[in-house]
Amino acid sequence: MNFIIRLLITTALVMFLCWLLPGVSVDGWTTALWVAVAMGLLNAFLKPILVFMTLPATIVTLGLFLLVINAVIIQLTAYFVKEFTVDNFWYALLFSIVLTFCQSIVNGKQQDDRLQRQ
Fold first, then answer.
1. Closest CA to 102 of 36, 28, 44, 45
2. Which stretches are transmembrane (predicted)?
């Protein structure tokens, strides 16, 4: 159930960010759901490999290179989901930063609510 809630939250955030950022577009809610699924799969399977392969760069940049990896994941998502477009790398980077920030706020609020109920 928690997975479905996070998926729906990510879908809504993708729609919001596509409205907010001019260089990112999505055709509709169904496409936003596919974007959320594709990002989840790429983050689960590809991101750990990319992080491991770029560990020296990540250490030298004190973790800032992870932002580049997130932008690459966004661009790969745009490649796989044709109705989701990102104009360039910088919009992908901005999209990933804002999406991560919004997800951390929403997911942190969910955990606070769960802790208060216990």
1. 36
2. 33-52, 59-82, 88-108
How far is it, in rounded angstroms, from Cα 109 to Cα 115?
A: 10
The string of DSSP codes covering the chain is: -HHHHHHHHHHHHHHHHHHH-TTEEES-HHHHHHHHHHHHHHHHHTHHHHHHHTHHHHHHTTTTHHHHHHHHHHHHHHHHSTTEEE-SHHHHHHHHHHHHHHHHHHHHHHHHHHHHH-
* CA-closest candidate to residue 74, choices 30, 14, 12, 33: 14
Reported confidence tier of residue 9, pLDDT bands at 50, 70, 90 = very high
Where in the chain are the domains?
Answer: 2-104
Q: What is the mean pLDDT of the chain?
A: 92
| Total count of residues recorded for the chain | 118
